[in-house]
Design brief:
Blueprint lengths: L1 E7 L2 E8 L2 E4 L11 H6 L3 H9 L11 E2 L9 E5 L3 H7 L8 E5 L4 E2 L5 E3 L6 E2 L2 E7 L15 E9 L1 E2 H4 L15 E8 L1 H4 L6 E6 L2 E7 L7 H11 L7 E3 L21 E6 L3 E9 L4
Parallel strand pairs: 5-16, 7-13, 8-18
Antiparallel strand pairs: 1-2, 1-4, 1-13, 2-3, 5-6, 9-12, 10-11, 10-16, 11-13, 14-15, 14-17, 17-18
Amino acid sequence: MKFISFTRLGNCGFGILAEDGVVDLTERLGPGLTSLKAAIAADLLQGASAFAERRAADFALSDVTLLPVVPDAGKILCVGLNYETHRAETKRPDNKHPTMFTRYADSQIAHGQPMLLPAVSDNLDFEGEMAVIIGRAGRCIPEERALAHIAGYACYNDGTIRDWQRHTHQFGPGKTFPGTGAFGPFMATPDEVGDYTRLSIQTRLNGAVMQDATLADLIFPVERLIAYISTYTPLSAGDVILTGTPGGVGDRRNPPLYMKAGDVIEVEISRLGRLANTVIAETAL
């Protein structure tokens, strides 16, 4: 199944993305259940399949405004330097452990919403990534059971303000600007995806391919990331892990290629759809 979060008529909700539109699940899986995160935490997504089979779409996709797949994620845990091509272009040494940083939920945007070029910088870079959405809470999760803790997968663009990223040794200042974390358009459940290592990922800027890889190229695979992260912090339903970006980022090109107002940036992952956003200047709001 493919799940989306959205607003309609001023109200937040969630549902299944079907061929003929959206099957609305808001408050239908349980009283007061109005978010995808809450449905994941209540372990109700499997029941949604039978519900969807009995109903036609409630409305067209064009009748809703998409939200980030999990707009209210408790934790967004990001992995840096997790493709050899990206590690090599940054000239950083090999690492025995994943490079970790965090992003805040209020920095996120949905598919189709503008990505913001902040007034304080013109160094907005793209980072196409696969997001993993946690379905079952856990601590110290063994690698061999890690995939059972996944609710689904989605496309993500971890937009980065490169000059602010370099203000300190920590990545945080460049990774949490408002309107820079694009997440969508939908979450695909594991049965839709199959073996995630067979997925391809591509980032395009104004139609030109910037990044091109497969998920098999991850230095630390998803199972290892879940085991490692859950050792130092408990994972909760609805938490998001960003698995890293391939080589080809704009910052490491010669000359550097940063996004500017009017650019269209796309992240496409096989089986996970196409995430597209247009860049606008923050001062244009």
